[in-house]
Amino acid sequence: MTIYEVAEEYGISKTICHEILTENLGVHQVGAKFVPHLLGEDQTRNHVGVSKDLVNCANAYDNFLKNFVSDDETWVYICDIATKSHFL
């Protein structure tokens, strides 16, 4: 979720939401993907082909991006303000 989505969900300002997440909970944004700068010719063709396929699917199917699943090893700390419960 983005800071905007969390702030809207709990009815607080984006500034306060950002402060809570970063200063109180120690959450930081991770959104970078590392791609080698020097791809081989075959790798470049494959990368371009896969990218075009993904763009075509996103354009063809309205819910394509909503069903896109990626996997990583991110741990998320959640605090439910209503119940004051903490989850990991």
Keywords summarizing the entry:
3 helices; 88 residues; elongated
Please explain how this structure is put together.
- With 88 residues, the protein is mostly helical.
- The chain has a domain at 1-28.
- It has three helices and two strands; from the N terminus they run αααββ.
- The protein has a two-stranded antiparallel sheet.
- α1 packs across α2.
- The longest helix is centred in the middle third of the chain and has 20 residues, at 41-60.
- The two termini are 15 Å apart.
In short:
The chain has 88 residues and is mainly alpha-helical. The chain contains 3 helices and 2 strands, in the order αααββ. The longest helix is centred in the middle third of the chain and has 20 residues, at 41-60.
Topology at a glance:
Layout: H1 3-10, H2 14-24, H3 41-60, E1 78-80, E2 85-87
Helix pairs in contact: 1-2
Q: Indicate the mean pLDDT.
A: 76
Structural class by sheet pairing and helices: mainly alpha
Q: Categorize the overall geometry.
A: elongated
Q: Kindly state the number of beta strands.
A: 2
Q: Give, in spatial order, the strands making up the sheet with the most strands.
A: 1-2
End-to-end Cα distance, whole Å, is: 15 Å
Strand content: 5-15%
Would you list the SSEs in sequence order as H and E? Answer: HHHEE
Helix content: 40-55%
- Rg: 18 Å
Instruction: Give start-end ranges of low-pLDDT stretches.
Output: none
- Characterize the main sheet: 2 strands, antiparallel
Helix count, DSSP H or I runs of 4 or more residues: 3
